[in-house]
Specification:
Elements (H helix, E strand, L loop, with lengths): L7 E5 L3 H12 L3 E5 L11 E4 L2 E4 L8 H9 L11 E3 L4 E5 L4 E4 L3 H11 L3 H24 L12 H7 L8 H6 L5 H8 L2 H4 L12 H9 L2 E3 L3 H15 L2 E3 L6 E5 L2 E5 L9 E4 L3 H8 L9 H6 L5 E10 L8 E5 L4 H8 L10 E4 L13 E10 L7 H19 L7 E7 L1 H8 L31 E3 L10 H19 L2
Helix pairs in contact: 1-10, 1-16, 2-16, 3-4, 4-9
Amino acid sequence: MQSLAGESVVVIGSGFGGLATACYLADAGADVRVIEKNDQLGGRASRLERDGFRFDMGPSWYLMPDVFERFFGDFDRTPSDYYELTHLDPHYRICFKDGDRVDVTPDLERTKDIFEEYEAGAGDALERYLQKSRENYEVGMEHFVYEDRTQLRDYLDLDVARQARGLSLLGSMQGHVEDYFEHPKLQQIMQYTLVFLGGSPTNTPALYNLMSHVDFNLGVWYPEGGIGSVVDGIADLGRELGVTYETGRPATAIKGREGAFLVETPSKPLRPDLVVSNADYAHTERELLAPQQRSYDADYWESRTYAPSALLLYLGVEGDVAELAHHTLVLPTDWNEHFDQIFEDPQWPDDPAYYVCVPSETDDSVAPAGHSALFVLVPIAPGLEDGPETRDRYRDRVLSDLAANTGCDLRDRIVLEERFCVSDFAQRYNSFEGTALGLAHTLRQTALFRPPHRSKAVDGLYFVGGDTTPGIGMPMCLISGELTAETVLADHGS
């Protein structure tokens, strides 16, 4: 293994990408310090704790368990050394706004029967779809996700072309799903995972049908204590490897270059040999670097397609919420208008699709006895005005919609309520226009078309996180950490 002994590294930001990079670099012998703007580690995977309730503020789906197993395995550990997992059943519930309800469970034969009720032959079509999804996942992960192909010539190699043969690389998810299913509700079930990628059925490449393998075959899991337990586990691993963490210490500027950096903070500056930024990529370029140090100009960031922001309601509720599963999706029978009001004509959606997470269905520790902890997430366009009156009005609308379409009326039982929206994402995470996730996974923003891990303008400066490859989501950010560390080792390892 290559060594970084004698090298000092500052990692700015402690999202999954920053935490993972820190582990890999420390394991290679570097002296690694992670500095975090906020008062806890985890980036968007923060916790909110109030009056005996505990909420995951950001990610809440534990998908792709194989990625976490591989990550911990790289350090001769397993996830179970740090947290326990529960396989959810159902994986999730879908409540359509015309009264239909579908539970997707670990029992594939049962799911095929449900599909058959909507469309003759859809059960067999689901099996074929998932076989294609599995192939895309296995080939895509091995040859295109864990391999950081940063230049066009990397895709012209004969071996790469051979591996790519048969992958659903081009076209949209909408077109791909229509090849298998005609019923619009079945199409929605196969496409809802696009929310995790920050895209819509019409702007996300068909390659991402691999997410259905993640969903149906690998399953949906819950880490005891919530996603915050995973953050704690990775941070504990980092401490075992020698990583130092400092919360409440934002970076205010990055100056210098390889071997002579100066990272300014409100207290004293840091002087590492190398810098890895897990802060929002656009924020790092636009706010922390001088103009001559930037790889991209303002027009670049303004022209990108961003994943949605969100209105989040964190609710502590008296009694149970039996009508809801751990994960519940509430979908209009035609969700195209909602996607259009995110990506085409940004505005607060007229008939929203939204998601409800009830961790207290699985974990008694997240709420006081006799209460439920849950949050409601409504995807909305980044950059929207979200003042108090707007939040109040839309909060009332969503809770009314939830009561009407799931039978779960929370309005007279709420004992704790916190809200989080566009301006909060911008302030807390320095995210561009308050996007909740970063750069969307459009065809022009996938693979080598995402910003690179290595700065084009400053030697010794690197980037990690959802804006880089492979992209958005906890598993992808873990892999991003591995890829960034490999890039650093390629440049500086001995």
